[in-house]
Design goal:
Largest sheet: 7 strands, mixed
Strand order of the largest sheet: 3-2-1-4-5-7-6
Order of helices and strands: HHEHEEEHEHHEHE
CATH topology: Rossmann fold
Distance between the termini: 36 Å
Helix content: 25-40%
Structural class: alpha/beta
CATH superfamily: Vaccinia Virus protein VP39
Strand content: 25-35%
Shape: globular
Number of helices: 7
Number of domains: 1
CATH architecture: 3-Layer(aba) Sandwich
CATH class: Alpha Beta
Number of strands: 7
Length: 210
């Protein structure tokens, strides 16, 4: 995907950083702390920049995203579906947001198995994905979506890769950062902890390597 196309479809949004700071904090408090963390398809690196981990790596196919990696974040450019760059048993967390739907299902299944090998025993895979069950009408508004996942099918894919499921939330976050939902950090924090989340169409799946 060209830089022009990427920035046209996923523009830099001033509100994005605050949202990811709250999401990273929520994940760290719930499942951390993490010594070594990896983000797949890191994009503008807002999540990995915000996560309080000692060793942080951002993986993305777009070399322009290296400019967004913060201090202490190692940026690795490449296609993880053709070459997996993370050594076995070297990470406590692998995180991916809105990533698996952009690659074929069989490639996603292979990738999940490679992620498992990259994690230390007890390490966690955290996936934040559009839940087709909740956003079918708009799922293919992005023509780069090539795979379909619901909370049921993604949970099964994670299990098939050898993980133990620790957490499933069918509606964790709004479908898009472009939504009209408030993005002030205080309101995002309340939204993440609320039992009622209007417009929540992204699921959160957490698997642990046994």
């Amino acid at each position: 995907m060209s830089t022009f196309t990427y920035q046209g479809r996923y523009p830099v949004l001033a509100s994005r950083r605050g949202v990811w700071q709250e999401v990273a904090g929520w994940i760290d408090r719930r499942f951390g702390p993490f010594d070594s963390a990896v983000e797949l398809g890191a994009g503008y690196c807002d999540f990995i920049n915000s996560l309080p981990a000692r060793h942080k790596r951002a993986l993305d196919i777009n070399p322009e995203m290296a400019h967004h990696a913060g201090p202490g974040v190692e940026f690795i450019c490449g296609d993880v579906t053709t070459k997996w760059p993370i050594a076995p048993s070297s990470a406590d967390l692998v995180f991916a947001s809105n990533f698996l739907e952009h690659i074929p299902v069989f490639a996603g299944a292979t990738l999940l198995r490679e992620v498992k090998e990259a994690l230390r025993p007890g390490g966690r895979l955290v996936l934040l994905q559009p839940n087709f069950r909740r956003c079918a009408a708009h799922y293919f508004d992005d023509e780069t979506h090539v795979a379909v996942y619901s909370d049921d099918t993604l949970t099964q894919a994670v299990i098939d890769a050898g993980f133990v499921i620790e957490h499933v939330d069918p509606g964790f976050l709004a479908f898009s950062m472009k939504s009209r939902l408030p993005k002030w950090r205080g309101l995002v924090r309340l939204y993440l902890h609320s039992p009622v989340k209007p417009g929540a169409a992204q699921m959160l799946i957490v698997g642990r390597r046994p």
